[in-house]
């Protein structure tokens, strides 16, 4: 039996576009609208869960309202020859009038009651002179999650989404991991410089030591020559006296 048509309206409807550079978190928004007179439960799934943070990734959309889902792509090494195969799916089901447990709704839902929409991911790397501007725009978009469209939702819809404090914690954790990686790179560079300095000092000390040994050998040779000379002079003087 074919699944029913998706009742939610998605914007964008078919693809999520992420604009580089991808050395920092890149955020794009997906708007979900419920034009029906029934509350709708939804879930957002992806084929690459380790590469994305999705907030909120599930919840309830009240009749006649909409929410904004933030999709955050984690930093990675961009390869222009590699096409993105990542996909997202928005799954939904009509909420029962007497619903008390959203997880229970998903468990009890029949296959012919589930609706879904699929979106593909597109990576867009800007030209060189636009990279700085786009990096700043991505940071501003990530920091403006608190001011997203979801702030216009009724209180009942907001209670089913993730609170702003948890979104802030996720963004701070991403930034902390990036700073930690930078710190480790700097420490590794400093260790290499210290090793090079110690090797140079060791070479200088070795040179000084070899010069000192040569001087000591020269002094020893002179002392032996003087001793032999004094011995010969003593023998000659002794013979003259006798």
Total number of beta strands:
9
Major β-sheet profile? 5 strands, mixed
Strands in their spatial order, largest beta sheet: 2-9-8-4-6
Structural class: alpha+beta
**Percent of residues in β-strands:** 15-25%
CATH superfamily of the domain at 9-124: Immunoglobulins
Low-confidence stretches: 152-160
**Mean pLDDT, rounded to whole units?**
79
State the helical fraction. 40-55%
Topology order in helix (H) and strand (E) letters: EEEEEEEEHEHHH
**CATH fold naming of the domain at 9-124:** Immunoglobulin-like
State the shape: rod-shaped
The value of Rg in angstroms is 38 Å
Through-space gap between termini:
139 Å
CATH class value of the domain at 9-124: Mainly Beta
Supply the number of helical segments.
Answer: 4
CATH architecture of the domain at 9-124: Sandwich
Coiled coil: 167-194
Family: Belongs to the VAMP-associated protein (VAP) (TC 9.B.17) family.
Pfam families: Motile_Sperm
Protein name: Vesicle-associated membrane protein-associated protein B-like
């Amino acid at each position: 039996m074919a699944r029913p048509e998706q009742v939610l309206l998605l914007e964008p409807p078919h693809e999520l576009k992420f604009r580089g550079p991808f050395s920092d978190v890149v955020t794009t928004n997906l708007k979900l609208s419920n034009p029906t007179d029934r509350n709708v439960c939804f879930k957002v799934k992806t084929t690459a869960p380790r590469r994305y943070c999705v907030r909120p990734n599930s919840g309830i959309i009240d009749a006649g309202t909409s929410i904004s889902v933030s999709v955050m792509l984690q930093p990675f090494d961009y390869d222009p020859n590699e096409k993105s195969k990542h996909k997202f799916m928005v799954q939904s089901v009509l909420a029962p009038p007497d619903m008390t447990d959203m997880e229970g709704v998903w468990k009890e839902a029949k296959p012919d009651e589930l609706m879904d929409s699929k979106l593909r991911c597109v990576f867009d790397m800007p030209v060189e002179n636009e990279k700085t501007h786009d990096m700043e725009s991505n940071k501003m978009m990530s920091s403006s999650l608190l001011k997203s469209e979801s702030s216009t939702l009724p209180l009942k819809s907001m209670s089913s989404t993730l609170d702003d404090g948890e979104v802030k914690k996720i963004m701070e954790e991403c930034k902390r991991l990036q700073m930690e990686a930078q710190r480790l790179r700097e420490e590794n560079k400093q260790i290499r410089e210290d090793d090079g300095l110690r090797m140079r000092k060791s070479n200088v000390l070795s040179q000084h030591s070899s010069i000192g040994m040569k001087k000591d050998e020269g002094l020893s040779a002179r002392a032996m020559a003087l001793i032999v000379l004094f011995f010969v002079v003593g023998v000659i003087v002794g013979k003259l006296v006798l």
